[in-house]
Predict the structure.
Amino acid sequence: MSMNGSAARLWLSSLLAAAVISVAGAGEPTVTPPVDPRVDLAKKIPGAKVEELKPTSVPGMYELTRGTDVGYVTSDGRFYFAGDLYDIQQGVNLTDASRNGARRNLLATIPESETVTFSPANPKYTITVFTDVDCGYCRKLHSDMKQLNSLGVRVRYVFYPREGPGSEAWEVAEAVWCSPDRADALTRAKRGEDIPAKKCGATPVARQYELGHKLNIRGTPGIFTTEGEYIAGYLPPPRLLEQIKASKAN
């Protein structure tokens, strides 16, 4: 069967168009997205979540962060290392950096409205202090408040009655919170004065106590800088200021 010139050209054009469509339809080969190795690793560690794992600068080792607990696990999920990891060349404690970051995230959950704050007019530094009204060193720290404020240190108090719910310190903490002037009531409580028990509905004491556990507070006063560094226990104001400055420098 023969075709005239016009028919032949039409047939050839259709054939070429079909070929172009066929090639275009083939497109690029399908690319399978890479599998996150943390998914498989998390399955090998009881209770672990993918977001708790991150690669380290050490080949074959991942960092595992739970709350403020930081450890290291091999990529096959077989070995776990507890302790601090140092970059010797840089002179940096890598574990501290991760731990401080975790603390900052937890401290950021405390609303300013749920703290009892003592501040100078123009603060240069802020610390968050977990306090127990019956703790001797907490009382000593509070007696330094005027000097701390004069050094530019703003103190945010939250409650951490060490003996837990139902203890006398817990009841005093709630009485302080329910007082019309919380700063004055806290000062008087730390002097050993009686604070009349009042009910004012829910208080933040239980939440702050639980947060203290998450932060692994080992005693009171438990002091945290804005960078997340933990200062365990009382320091005289000049030494405390040195620690605060060092934390900012790091």
Remarks:
- Residues 5-26 form the longest helix (22 residues).
- The first strand starts at residue 53 and ends at 55.
- The mean pLDDT is 89.
